[in-house]
Amino acid sequence: WPTGFIHFVDKAVKNTVPPSLSGTPQVGATLRAAKGRWKPKPSYTYQWLADLVPIEGATAQTFTPGPDQVGAQVSARVTATKEAHTPGVLDTPATEPIAKGELVSTAPPAVSGDAEVDAVLTATPGTWSATPDSTSYQWRSDGVLLGGATQSQLTLTSAMVGTTITAAEVARRSGFVKGTAAAPQAVGPVVEGVIEEVTPITASGRNHYGAQLAVEPGTTDPEDVTTTYAWLRDGIAIEGALEPTYLPTEADVGHAISAQITMAKPRYRSIVRTFDFARTTTPSTVGVRTSGRKRKAVVRVRVAAPGTTPSGPVRVKVGRTKEQGVLDNGFVRVVLDGLKPGERTVKVVFAGDGIAQRSRGVAAVLVRKGKKK
Length: 373
Hints:
The structure is a single chain. The chain contains no helices and 38 strands. By secondary structure, the protein is mostly beta strands. The strands form 13 sheets. A 4-stranded antiparallel beta sheet has the order 6-5-8-9, with no helix packed on it. Strands 16-15-18-20 form a 4-stranded antiparallel beta sheet, with no helix packed on it. The radius of gyration is 50 Å and the shape is rod-shaped. The model has no long low-confidence stretch (mean pLDDT about 95).
């Protein structure tokens, strides 16, 4: 027999039923390749393809598409091999483009907490068919979405009083349509505690320069409230005036003073009371200087008051003789004529101007004798 000849494999593995795919073309859903039928009976290997490009590491009979395959058409290449036979290779028909997966809630989130103003509600996450990359929350008040409330906790405010609060968990995962699952618990209606005044708030004092003003909170139910004070000048808070008492200063003269008292407690509606003490008045003093003339007296009057310049009329009297002048920048000059000669008493009365209070002054004047004609 001749030696050194070459043997050619002229036998091949032949397909009798083509391979196929089963499963849903969707991220997270498992696809399975059916190898079909081949003769003679071979062994099989698999390679999954996305748009006919081999997917690295995808060599099992099953394949679960991930985010990278979204929109691609997936197929499986089946290779049938048998010793001393030419291998058979066939691709399955390709799927429809791979769709995004669906995140399905397997257990809903839960909400806990009290339906009271300032209470904090907490949402506990549920579970999903695939582990989310991230989750957020949607809080609603009577069905109206609360903008910006996306965390697992929500602090109830007075604006929510009377409404019912609900929550939903929103799950996101790459390659999946976002999933939303509502918590079965509804919290509400939201209520707000009421602080009751057992004995009333009182105010005392006269709004006068140098005189003390005071407010007293009384008693409440519940008792453990926090009481704060603010004193205001013409409606504007006076810096540092945060005590239950206040001593009006020169800066307050002529201005309206009020006291604001606030009693507060978490989860309760605060009590705010304002007491008006009207405008601050101030004492005045009358200074009198006199000069005697022939049968007349010249009287110079200065009226002064802390925090203001007094204005208005001033009455001057010597015996039965009376004259009146009007203050100009706190001063006035009055002349009384036809007086009897001699030492006389000058009486001055400032009637007050609504801010500077009424005051009096007394002085003496020597009226000279006039020449007889």
